[in-house]
Amino acid sequence: MSDQIQFIVEKLNQEPFRRNYNLITFDSLEAVQLLQLLNDVLGEIDPKHAVDIREELPEQTAKRMLSLLGILKYKPPGNISDLSAFRQGLVTGSKPVIHPVLYWLLQRTNELKKRAYLARFLVKLEVPPEFLQDDTVADINKQYEELMEAFKNLHKECEQLKTSGLSTAEIRRDISAMEEEKDQLIKRVERLKKRVETVQNHPRMLEIARQLRLEKEREESLAQQKQEQKTQLFYAEQRLQRAQLQLKEMHHAVADSKPETLMKKLEEEINFNSYLVTEKIPRELESKKNAVYFLQKVLAEPAMGQSDLSVLETKINEVNAQMNQLTEKRMMKYEPIDSKFSMYRQQASIISRKKEAKAEELQAAKEEMSSTERQMLQKTSQAHELEGSEVLKGDEFKLYVTKLRSKNTFYKKKRLEIAEITAEYGILQRTEELLKQHHEAIQQQLQSIEDKKGISGYSYTQEELERVSAVKGEMDEMKGRTLDNMSEMVKKLNALVAEKKASLAPVIKELRQLRQQCQELTQECDEKKFQYDSCAAGLESNRSALEQEVKGLLEECVQEESNYHYINCMKRNLEVQLQRVKEEMKAYVSSDPQERRKAIREQYTRMILEQENLGKKLREKQKVVRESHGPNMKQIKMWQDFEQLMECKRECFLKQQNQTAIGQVIQEGGKDRLVL
């Protein structure tokens, strides 16, 4: 009990209560203050209960608290078995009743907040059946139940999203990336619009493009519908094939079997099905019902803590021990006459178990046979789709196997030939690569020699000259030009080649240097980038490890500091308590009556007597009020009736005065008319 009170005081001194209690001040709370404290804790769980209990009757307070505790599934401890005693203790603010409730509430505040929040929407409002006969009330009740189910689903989705582990940083990165993509798409659309605006008849072209897009979407939807219809047709063909196969098997069974065998099979099936219906399925159904009943019973009970589980485990161990003792006693008292019956019972139980096992094996074999038949039908349908013919059987299958073997040998021979050709092709390809490399090396050597001799590009020029000469020969053959024209053309070409070569030579040299520098800088950049990435990764890992370590040390420091302050506070409280105990003992032992009157015991005794006298006076006053309540209420009713009667007379008097005044006015008006 002291640990329980200490836990309550610690929780009340923390957020959001901040009561600044110690064990003495908490234990010295009066009943009304204790009830108000319980009400404040309930108000923290459910804000609707944050009220002042002095402004309502004790019965209303007890009813409100009991209803909320029922919603929160609070179960009174074992020493308060009578619910009326628990209710009476809750009304009077009894400490043995209030302390366990506070301990239970403060242990699981967050869980109870969630349960109270859900109870606002999930506690079903019971409507009497006679009211549900009205269609309007029935429709509203149905909508109410649908909204309740929708709230359940939304709450589950919300909890799943909370526990899904989605970080805000990732979501923000995704949002920023999507915004960038959106900006890029907007810019791209604007560029395309600007490009399209320059085209003639661009509105008509846009309309045609839109129609084309719509037609493509329609084509895709039609293709999807066609695919769905194909799948439906495929499933329908499979069902038809299964039905035809079953019909064929039934025809074969009827044609190849005799009436006696058919009757025997039917009797076996009937016996097996009757066993399933009368023995196995009812037993399984009963076991499932019992399991569901126990699960519902477990769900109906409040949430259990470690202490409740330990109590249940001890009870289970005790019951198991009692069962073992009773079994041993029964075995000791067992008479030898009943040994034969026990043997028969064991044999019967063994046979029943074997029967159940065989029934399960038969059921599993039937399920396996049905699945195998389904697979066979699927394979048959696939074979029909691929080959377009039925499955081979008997001699046809043997012929097909021999043909397949001969084709297999022919295939292996051809595969060997293909492998030889592939190897030869690889050799030739490698030879070609070597020749190309050799040719490139010779070209490079030739180019280097030309550079050394100062005639770079000579080979290229020679090739060009050869090509030009070839062209010249063709031109001579085709057009019959003269040799002088060709020589002039060659001179012009040589001059042009030399000019181009002279103009491109410094540019090529500069380009080579720049390419070499670019390669060196690229390589250096890659190396630096790799070094930077590795260093950044190492520093990031070290930083995260140091942050975790610092966080752990800070938490440990805060915990140790709180423990230090808590121990100091407890030490001061104990010193104060010890000082008060010494003073109390000194005053109580003192022979001076003035000193003894200062003792706390004497003060509490006087306070108890004063409160008892005050309670007696209040009970007497309550008795007088109850006795005079009926006559006073009658007198109030009579005065109210008298007031209504006088009000009615006043109204009648006012009406009569108004009528007489109107009559006088009418009479004076008539006299004036007569005078005129």
TrEMBL record:
Coiled coil, from the record: 137-232, 309-382, 483-591
Superkingdom: Eukaryota
GO-annotated molecular function: tubulin binding
Claim: Phosphoprotein is one of the keywords in the record: yes
All copies of domain IFT81 calponin homology, residue ranges: 3-126
GO CC list: ciliary basal body; intraciliary transport particle B
Primary subcellular site in the record, as a coarse category: cytoplasm
Location within or outside the cell: Cytoplasm, Cytoskeleton, Cilium basal body
GO annotation terms (biological process): cell differentiation; cilium assembly; intraciliary transport; spermatogenesis
Primary role: Component of the intraflagellar transport (IFT) complex B: together with IFT74, forms a tubulin-binding module that specifically mediates transport of tubulin within the cilium. Binds tubulin via its CH (calponin-homology)-like region. Required for ciliogenesis. Required for proper regulation of SHH signaling. Plays an important role during spermatogenesis by modulating the assembly and elongation of the sperm flagella.
Family recorded in the similarity comment: Belongs to the IFT81 family.
Protein name: Intraflagellar transport protein 81 homolog
Species name: Centropus bengalensis (lesser coucal)
